[in-house]
């Protein structure tokens, strides 16, 4: 039993080292230019060790991709395990954990975004919306104006992904807590009016 646990830890450590090396190389160069030899040299393993764990660099990328998106869904739900419902004013822990998860995995996020060129934005949106559809449901106030649920869900998730992508564009210069607060403020804000910027003809 102890031997099995030791081997499991060693396997996890090896796989993580290969993934970390791959992500670093993608960010330094490009996915297409990175070879398996590059990965094994960076991780200080041989090619045989790589092939023991992954069939190809495509398989390695897929595992990084799948684990990242799985973590997104878990981040949304973990703060509320065992609860049947929460008030709308109590969503901050979930939003904060979402941003903290991305902050803790920003290298993977940036690497995946670089490789998939726009696809990650769509997949992030789909993963968040899937979680909101399958794992929870937003209930609107009884006296609120009627709104189509799917449209409202798309609006909420688009706002969330848009804020996340902006955060990545500015190289995560704000804290996860600040971003969570900003998102909640934006979603709950009511626009007063729109002012048009006058341009001189001269």
UniProtKB/TrEMBL annotation:
One Pfam family this sequence matches: TetR_N
Domain HTH tetR-type: 12-72
Domain of life: Bacteria
InterPro entries, sorted: Homeodomain-like_sf, HTH-type_Tx_Regulator, HTH_TetR, TetR_C_Firmicutes
Alphabetically ordered keywords of this record: DNA-binding
DNA-binding region: 35-54
Protein name listed in UniProt: HTH tetR-type domain-containing protein
């Amino acid at each position: 039993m102890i031997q099995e646990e030791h081997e499991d830890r060693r396997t996890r450590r090896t796989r993580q080292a290969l993934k970390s090396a791959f992500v670093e190389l993608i960010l330094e160069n490009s996915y297409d230019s990175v070879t398996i030899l590059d990965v094994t040299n960076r991780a200080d393993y041989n090619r045989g060790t790589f092939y023991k764990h992954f069939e190809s660099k495509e398989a390695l990328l897929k595992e990084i991709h799948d684990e990242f998106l799985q973590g997104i869904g878990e981040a949304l739900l973990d703060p509320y395990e065992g609860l049947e419902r929460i008030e709308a004013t109590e969503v901050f822990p979930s939003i904060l954990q979402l941003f903290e998860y991305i902050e803790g995995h920003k290298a993977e996020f940036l690497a995946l975004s670089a490789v998939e060129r726009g696809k990650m934005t769509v997949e992030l949106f789909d993963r968040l919306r899937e979680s909101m559809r399958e794992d929870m449901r937003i209930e609107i106030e009884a006296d609120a104006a009627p709104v189509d649920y799917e449209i409202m869900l798309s609006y909420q998730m688009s706002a969330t992904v848009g804020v996340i992508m902006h955060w990545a564009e500015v190289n995560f210069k704000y804290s996860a807590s600040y971003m969570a607060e900003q998102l909640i403020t934006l979603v709950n804000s009511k626009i007063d009016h729109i002012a048009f910027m006058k341009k001189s003809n001269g």
